[in-house]
Each structure stands twice: as structure tokens, then as C-alpha cells.
Design a protein that fits this description.
The protein is of the alpha/beta class. The chain is about 40% helix and about 20% strand. The chain contains seven helices and nine strands, in the order ββαβββααβααβαβαβ. The protein has a four-stranded parallel β-sheet with strand order 6-7-8-9. Strand 7 (about 165-170), helix 6 and strand 8 form a beta-alpha-beta unit. Helix 1 runs antiparallel to helix 2 (about 60-90) and helix 2 (about 60-90) packs across helix 3. The longest helix is centred in the middle third of the chain and has 31 residues, at about 60-90.
């Protein structure tokens, strides 16, 4: 519908309160669809925005702008949503020694960008892949008849340079993981009383993570 010689400008506006992430990716979409399109960043990633704030501008062929519009906004909205939600959790634990970590449950093809958005929101990255830390989960333990000590020993022998984390569903499993020499114990789907007891049982011998059924409240 749009002749290629018609030029104009588009403005990216925030429609909600949040944290911006993914501007470089979004604006690169316009440069890829039409290298002649000029882009201008008005707010940096990590900026807190309110409804109506101007985030970026694009100028050039309107056909080129419209070609990249939806893809660019998809990146920007998705990554800003992650940064915004992460920021809420980070603010909730301010003043404590707790840190907010992400998971490896990412959208295929978007892991690096999604984990970047977590950092923009003030969170910290956990594992990027199976290559940088061993996580012994419930299904691994089930295959070894629940023998946590054997699981940790096998993992340590196979990859002595990697940290080993064990997923514990009960306080007893958490204690057994610490006894076995795990570096980190993941306390899975425990209530607050169970978390406190597990941390007492571990007694500083391993780092602890709480995962599952975690809400902002």
C-alpha cells in the first residue's frame, strides 16, 4: 500500500509503567529491514518508564518502518516485560542477602536476550546451559534409587571443575545433599517453615536456593 518514496517518522511510546530492555535489538530490526532507516534512542535499557514516555524514534521510508514495526515491538515488549517483572522481585528483597536468579526455562532461540533482560531488571543469571553447572534433579535421583551421595560423587568425578547443585524436595534430602558435598542445594516447592528448617540443617555447608511456588508476596 505504501509507495517506497514516502518518508516519515515513528515514535516508540511506553504504554505502561516498567523497565525498558531490548532497545538495541528492536532498533536493529529496522536497520535490517531497511538500512536507510535512521534510529534514535531516547532512553537507555534499564530506564524506568511511565505511560506516554518516548523511548525511541525511527525515521525514513514509511514502508521500511512499517515492515519492521511489529517484530521490533515484539522484542521490546517481551524483553521489557522480563526486566519489569524481575525488577519487582529485586525491589521486594532489597535490604536482605537474597538474590533473584533466573532459570534455564527460556524461549528457544531467545535465551541470551532473555537472560540479558533479567540482568537489566537487576536480577542475576543462573546456568546458561548444561555445560556451566551440574543440577541433579528429582528424575536423576529417581534413576539412582534416590541415592544423593552416589549422584554427587558421580557428578564430581565426571566434571570436577563444575559446581554441583542438588534439587531437594524434603528437608531430609537437603541435609543429605549438604552431607554429600553439594555446592548448592535447591529447596524445591517448600513452605517457609520447611525452608527455615532446611537452611538450619545445611548450616552454611552449601549455598541455598528456593524455587517453585515463589510469588512476589
Amino acid at each position: 500500500l505504501i509507495p517506497p518514496d514516502i518518508r516519515g517518522m515513528g515514535t516508540v511510546l511506553s504504554k505502561a509503567t516498567g523497565v525498558i530492555a531490548g532497545l538495541d535489538v528492536a532498533l536493529e530490526v529496522f536497520r535490517q529491514t531497511n538500512p536507510a532507516v535512521k534510529t534514535r534512542v531516547l532512553m537507555a535499557d534499564g530506564s524506568e518508564v511511565a505511560p506516554g514516555d518516548m523511548v525511541a524514534e525511527v525515521e525514513g521510508s514509511i514502508a521500511g518502518i512499517l515492515k519492521g514495526e511489529r517484530v521490533a515491538l515484539n522484542f521490546l515488549q517481551h524483553l521489557s516485560g522480563i526486566a519489569t517483572e524481575t525488577s519487582r522481585y529485586v525491589k521486594a528483597v532489597q535490604g536482605t542477602r537474597a538474590r533473584i536468579l533466573d532459570t534455564r526455562k527460556t524461549v528457544p532461540g531467545l535465551r541470551e536476550m532473555e537472560k540479558y533482560a533479567v540482568r537489566v531488571g537487576g536480577g542475576h543469571n543462573h546456568r546458561f546451559g548444561l555445560y556451566d553447572q551440574i543440577l541433579i534433579k528429582d528424575n536423576h535421583l529417581a534413576a539412582l534409587d534416590g541415592d544423593i551421595a552416589t549422584a554427587v560423587a558421580l557428578a564430581r568425578e565426571a566434571s570436577p571443575e563444575l559446581k554441583i547443585e542438588v534439587e531437594a524436595d524434603t528437608v531430609e534430602q537437603a541435609r543429605a545433599a549438604a552431607d554429600a558435598g553439594a555446592d548448592i542445594v535447591l529447596l524445591d516447592n517448600m513452605n517457609c517453615d520447611e525452608l527455615r528448617e532446611a537452611i538450619e540443617q545445611i548450616d552454611g555447608r552449601a549455598k541455598t536456593e528456593a524455587s517453585g511456588d515463589v510469588t512476589l508476596e
